[in-house]
From TrEMBL:
The keyword Membrane applies. Residues 141-296 form the Glycosyltransferase 2-like domain. CDD domains: DPM_DPG-synthase_like (cd04179). The chain crosses the membrane at residues 363-388, 400-420. This is Glycosyltransferase family 2 protein. Keywords: Membrane, Transmembrane, Transmembrane helix. Pfam families: Glycos_transf_2. InterPro entries: Glyco_trans_2-like (IPR001173), Glycosyltransferase_2 (IPR050256), Nucleotide-diphossugar_trans (IPR029044).
Length: 433
């Protein structure tokens, strides 16, 4: 590193050390936990030190405050009757903060105004200025979760910033996922046992159909997806340009840190999904998606497992829904990771996609292999005849294999033709209805 670069880093460090650092002090009563967690998250992101007097908070709520970057100012018994505002001021001074803005849980804090007010050297503690509670667009966000206690809290709270309602579909978790979700005051729909992601999304769509929201979004609860990108993913739906929007990690100029083995497996699944749906997409396995009310009404998911993303695309195409992709970012570093082994996950999805190809495109599923077997059988048979004519040697084994492959191939083509006709007839009957 050059001397000039070193000097610049030192100047930046000194400047940062000299910059005032302020705090937000919150008096928590246990009555507005959702607003409390939201304020802690926003204050941390705005680079404030967040101090919370936990009057009425239970252990799980305190734990979530800490996970979101806040500091719980525990009171001891002799301090029980002290003014909580003074406790926050004392805690700020003990941490050498340059000022603190005080508020109660439920207040919508204007952080820029706090920063401006605290800059005044004559004022150490102020009452935090508030701002009107701006209503978000009519969005419902769904988060399917299975043992996601590590990342579910921050994901919900960030999503609540850009949604009218967040619903967590807990798929039989055995950890604290449900308890943490309830602390954020999100709507929680519970499965008594683990039934799979597909079943969780079925539950979400069923719930969504009972609401009157204009946009519906789903994302994973492990922290891989960034809830701040919800508006970008939802925009094509809100602009009435698409019915189903897929957040893609692999569009041009879309940054990604997907490990190579994951990306390779996803490309294989992309190709298989292309075969089942006929639509080429760059990221068919993305769990970050937005839906229009039309899509919510028309989509019919049958699978319980992890092949739901591919089935959803095929089902959308069958129902003439407009599909669009938008670029998203994704995080893998520091994330607890998916519940299932990647190889097992990939094989289960691939198996499901092959079943979809069999059911929706039987001529492709049976006919193409049938043609390949038939050609191979005929080629072996011709070679056996040529061998007999040139050398007088009868290749019994090769001849039997030739006959076997030819019969299997012809049967495959025949089955493909018959099943394809039956599939077309069923589709025609559906259109008549």
């Amino acid at each position: 590193m050059s001397q000039g670069s070193t000097d610049q880093l030192e100047r930046d460090a000194v400047k940062k050390a000299q910059s005032p650092h302020f705090g937000i002090g919150i008096i928590a009563t246990g009555e507005h936990n959702e607003a409390l967690f939201r304020t802690v998250l926003r204050a941390t992101r705005a680079d404030f030190t967040t101090l919370v007097v936990p009057d009425g908070l239970d252990t799980e709520a305190k734990q979530l405050v800490r996970q979101l970057g806040g500091t719980v100012v525990e009171t001891i018994e002799r301090q029980g009757e002290e003014n909580p505002r003074q406790l926050l001021v004392d805690a700020a001074e003990s941490r050498s903060l340059d000022g603190i803005a005080l508020c109660e849980a439920g207040d919508e804090i204007d952080f820029e105004a706090c920063q401006d007010a605290l800059v005044s050297p004559s004022t150490y503690a102020i009452t935090a200025p508030t701002q009107p509670n701006e209503s978000s667009t009519e969005r419902l966000v769904g988060i399917p979760a299975y043992n996601e206690s590590v990342g579910i809290g921050s994901t919900i709270l960030a999503a609540q910033q850009v949604a009218d309602e967040v619903v967590v579909i807990d798929d039989g978790s055995s950890d604290n996922t449900v308890a943490i979700a309830r602390e954020t005051e999100a709507t929680v729909l519970e499965h008594e046992e683990n039934k799979g992601k597909g079943y969780a999304l079925q539950t979400f769509l069923t719930y969504a159909r009972t609401t009157e929201y204009e946009t519906f979004v789903i994302l994973d609860g492990d922290g891989q997806h960034l809830p701040t990108e919800i508006p970008a993913v939802a925009e094509p739906v809100e602009e009435e340009e698409a019915d189903l929007v897929v957040g893609s990690r692999y569009l041009e100029d879309s940054p990604t840190e997907t490990p190579f083995h994951r990306r390779f497996g996803q490309q294989v699944l992309d190709v298989l999904t292309l075969g089942s749906s006929g639509r080429k997409l760059s990221d068919t396995q993305s769990g970050f998606r937005a839906f229009s009310p039309t899509a919510v009404d028309r989509l019919s998911i049958r699978t319980d497992g992890m092949g739901v993303e591919s089935e959803m695309i095929g089902n959308a195409i069958e129902n003439d829904l407009e599909i669009e992709e938008v670029p998203i970012d994704v995080r893998y570093e520091g994330i607890d990771g998916q519940t299932f082994n990647p190889l097992r996950h990939g094989l289960s999805v691939a198996t499901f996609i092959l079943k979809m190809i069999r059911d929706r495109h039987p001529l492709m599923f049976f006919g193409l292999p049938g043609i390949m077997f038939t050609v191979a059988g005929i080629a072996l048979g011709v070679d056996a005849v040529l061998l007999y004519n040139s050398q007088g040697a009868f290749a019994a084994g090769q001849t039997l294999v030739s006959i076997f492959l030819t019969i299997i191939g012809v049967l495959g083509v025949f089955c493909g033709l018959v099943l394809n006709r039956m599939s077309n007839m069923i589709s025609e009957l559906k259109e008549v209805r």
